[in-house]
């Protein structure tokens, strides 16, 4: 690995290993149902996060985690769709048409039909086709046609002024208040637990953003990192979609909105807007986060088609519809690549998870059979002695640690064991471009 000068340091992502942990499941409420590997970071670069997402990781604020899919009651599968191939369903088209009608209002629509009528071709086209991009922008104030009404000598105005802007993921009083309102009313959260600090950590501490500040000259540059897409109605903030923009994809992190607008299905509308945004700005994929097949509430994600699921072992993408979906109906853990391999070689040994009564806390991650991780042999081949370690603000190498050579990767109590586990979950590409934070 290259030595770290100031320029190289700026290109690195940092990870603090937190280790493997069991936790209760938020979906089926089982007490010990889920297990994940965790790391935390204040500095993750978008291209590295993309690599992690494509290995099954996700972030919540500054906490990064990857679930042990075989060990979990409600396995979290990474899903994505090709933005250009998206085919909106009838209910999705209806939701956006309804919203546009509400924003424009009957009076505007009537006058516009008269003052700037659509051509016959346009009408015919609209009848047979649904253009997602056009529909998403139709009621945005900057796109609304405002011809002069001869009877009043003034431009006609829509019923509401609707604006959507993308901003850095920093906190503001208006965003925080909207977040509190949304969490307490929609998710019934205890308001005393929703301090601005928590809001900042959860939704305003994303991955590295570029450009760091938006100006007139860089406005059209491809954006990367964590952003807030802010929806304003008549000047008032009504929704914020938190987005991670990656080199090849838009990842939806969260959305919170004014519950007074619940009837407009803002979750559905924002997903359509983000797909259009991805398509228009050169991000091929749209990531809707994890998909949990057993969770009824999650099924709506599968309605954005065609959807693909990350194979937990081969890291290929398989269509959700068809074989995969049918298999998920019958068992929680599915890896199509594993199924095919087992069918060809009659190997079923490694598809079996651990016995429930094994005390996993005392085992090394290398013994836990967590899908998609590097094996002990693969980690040993990585030359981790040269991996960077950020130690009291300076970069050193792992091999500088006392007794590095003597320690073993499969000893979970040793520093080398902790480092090896982190490398095993991050994968080779991110290891090459990162540093570990341990003692600070
Ligand atoms: Zn569960």
UniProtKB/TrEMBL annotation:
The keyword Acyltransferase applies. GO terms for molecular function: arginyl-tRNA--protein transferase activity. Residues 24-94 form the N-end aminoacyl transferase N-terminal domain. It comes from Penicillium argentinense. This is Arginyl-tRNA--protein transferase 1. InterPro entries: Acyl_CoA_acyltransferase, Arg-tRNA-P_Trfase_1_euk, N-end_Aminoacyl_Trfase, N-end_Aminoacyl_Trfase_C, N-end_Aminoacyl_Trfase_N. Residues 175-311 form the N-end rule aminoacyl transferase C-terminal domain. Involved in the post-translational conjugation of arginine to the N-terminal aspartate or glutamate of a protein. This arginylation is required for degradation of the protein via the ubiquitin pathway. Keywords: Acyltransferase, Transferase, Ubl conjugation pathway. It comes from the Eukaryota. It is an enzyme of class 2 (transferase). The keyword Transferase applies. It catalyses: an N-terminal L-alpha-aminoacyl-[protein] + L-arginyl-tRNA(Arg) = an N-terminal L-arginyl-L-aminoacyl-[protein] + tRNA(Arg) + H(+). GO terms for cellular component: cytoplasm. Belongs to the R-transferase family. Its EC number is 2.3.2.8.
């Amino acid at each position: 690995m290259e030595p770290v000068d100031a320029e190289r340091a700026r290109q690195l992502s940092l990870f603090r290993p937190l280790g493997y942990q069991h936790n209760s499941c938020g979906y089926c409420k089982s007490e010990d149902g889920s297990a994940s590997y965790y790391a935390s970071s204040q500095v993750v670069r978008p291209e590295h996060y993309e690599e992690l997402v494509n290995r099954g990781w996700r972030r919540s604020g500054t906490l990064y985690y990857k679930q042990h899919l075989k060990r979990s009651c409600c396995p979290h599968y990474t899903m994505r769709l090709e933005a250009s191939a998206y085919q909106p369903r009838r209910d999705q088209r209806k939701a956006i048409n309804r919203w546009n009608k509400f924003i424009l209002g009957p009076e505007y629509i009537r006058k516009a039909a008269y003052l700037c009528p659509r051509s016959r071709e346009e009408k015919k086209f609209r009848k047979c086709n649904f253009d997602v991009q056009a529909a998403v922008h139709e009621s945005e104030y900057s796109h609304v046609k405002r011809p002069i009404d001869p009877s009043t000598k003034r431009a006609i105005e829509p019923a509401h002024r609707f604006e959507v802007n993308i901003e850095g993921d920093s906190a503001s009083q208006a965003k925080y208040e909207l977040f509190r309102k949304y969490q307490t009313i929609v998710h019934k959260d205890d308001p005393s637990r929703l301090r601005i600090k928590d809001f900042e950590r959860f939704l305003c501490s994303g991955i590295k953003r570029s450009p760091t500040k938006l100006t007139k000259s860089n406005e059209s540059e491809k954006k990367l990192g964590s952003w807030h897409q802010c929806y304003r109605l008549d000047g008032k903030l009504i929704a914020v979609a938190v987005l991670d923009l990656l080199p090849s994809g838009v990842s939806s992190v969260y959305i919170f909105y004014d519950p007074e607008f619940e009837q407009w299905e803002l979750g559905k509308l924002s997903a359509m807007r983000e797909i259009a945004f991805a398509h228009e700005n050169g991000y091929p994929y749209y990531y809707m986060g994890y998909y949990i097949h057993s969770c009824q509430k999650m099924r709506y994600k599968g309605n954005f088609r065609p959807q693909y699921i990350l194979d937990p072992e081969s890291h290929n993408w398989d269509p959700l519809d068809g074989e995969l979906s049918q298999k998920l109906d019958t068992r929680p853990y599915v890896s199509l690549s594993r199924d095919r391999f087992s069918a060809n070689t009659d190997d079923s040994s490694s598809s079996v998870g651990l016995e429930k009564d094994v005390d996993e806390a005392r085992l090394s991650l290398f013994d836990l059979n967590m899908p998609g991780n590097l094996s002990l042999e693969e980690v040993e081949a990585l030359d981790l002695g040269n991996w960077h370690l950020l130690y009291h603000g300076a970069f050193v190498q792992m091999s500088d640690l006392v007794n590095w050579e003597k320690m073993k990767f499969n000893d979970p109590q040793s520093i080398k064991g902790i480092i090896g586990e982190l490398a095993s979950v991050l994968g080779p590409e991110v290891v090459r471009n990162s540093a570990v934070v341990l003692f600070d």
